[in-house]
Amino acid sequence: MSHYITVPLNENGVITDPYIQEELKVACSQNFGIADVFLYSHGWWTTGMQALADYNRFSVNFADKTLEIAAIEPPPLPRLRQTKAFGVGLHWPSMLSEDTDSLVNRVEITSFYTMEKRADTVGHNGVYAILRMAIEANQAAKTPLRFHFLGHSFGCKVVCAALQEIADDEVNGITKALDINVVLIQAAFENDGMEVGQEYESIPTNIFNARVLVTRSDRDKALQEQFKTAKMINIFAQNRDRVALGADGPTDAVKSRFGGCYDLKVTPGFKHGDFQGKNNRLVCADITPLHDANEANGTYKGDQFGGHHSDINIPELYELIAAFLFQ
């Protein structure tokens, strides 16, 4: 039996559910027999109600796809049949107001820099605390946990800020040999963010040994155009011409730090068997062909501001993620 909880966090990354530690202690105990923990983080401009709807849609459709793959004989992804999953949906205040009718939300566009910084604060504090609670709760269990982080847009900053903290813990010997997979869907942070000296520099280290899947798209207007504009008008930025990870993919320096990168183009009809990156710590998937197809057939019409930035509920993308996590 699988289980799912939603964790509310405030703008400082403080967990507002007073029972969360107790809940995690029970869920990660021997009785539950949990093997895989999924942590989902939404991006900017998302209310609590929208986050719940997004998590419901993505997690149910992804689970349906994994069940479909698991039923194939012989099993193409054997670990899928061994999975007892626990899902954690993270909700952080990424809007000026949770009230969708509030007048203040009419100027939400001006909160870019606030929410960019808030995403890191939430990750460094709240999500890191959740991860440590889960690790400590699992110590008495016979089966070590596998952690799967999935972030979208600024939610990728939430994820990576938490991973930066836990990576430093592992480098310093506080935690040991964690099994961590990271899925960064259209990440809204600089594509050099995991280089030496940058905000998430500890994630590629060999001691931490996390695996990372990055998606990028030419049709992501929010990252191809709006992200660049926001950076250019930021007079405090050292390099105002940086590009987003979800726009162009990781820099060569980032790829080198991971020991190379498996680059692939995900086309319509893509299946888990098409994925050949099992032994790669870094995978960069170009999902432009999926967005092209969705635009052409009317499945998803990109808007003038974001384009296909939020076009992520795609069967082929579920196939890719399943292969990355369980191959």
Question: What can you see in these coordinates?
Answer:
With 327 residues, this protein is an alpha/beta fold. It has nine helices and eight strands. The chain has an eight-stranded parallel sheet with strand order 1-3-2-4-5-6-8-7, sandwiched between helices. The mean pLDDT is 91.
Which key phrases capture this entry?
9 helices; 327 residues; alpha/beta; eight-stranded parallel sheet; globular
Task: Summarize this entry quickly.
This protein is α/β, with parallel strands linked by helices.
Helix content: 25-40%
Q: Could you list the spans in which at least 5 consecutive residues all have pLDDT below 50?
A: none
Morphology: globular
What would you call the structural class? alpha/beta
- The H-and-E topology, N to C, reads as EHEHEHEHEEHHHEEHH
Distance between the termini: 22 Å
Discrete helix count? 9
The largest beta-sheet arranges its strands as 1-3-2-4-5-6-8-7
Mind sketching the topology for me?
Layout: E1 3-8, H1 20-27, E2 36-41, H2 48-70, E3 85-91, H3 112-137, E4 146-152, H4 155-171, E5 179-185, E6 211-216, H5 221-232, H6 245-248, H7 252-257, E7 262-265, E8 282-286, H8 288-297, H9 315-326
Parallel strand pairs: 1-3, 2-3, 2-4, 4-5, 5-6, 6-8, 7-8
Helix pairs in contact: 1-3, 2-9, 3-4
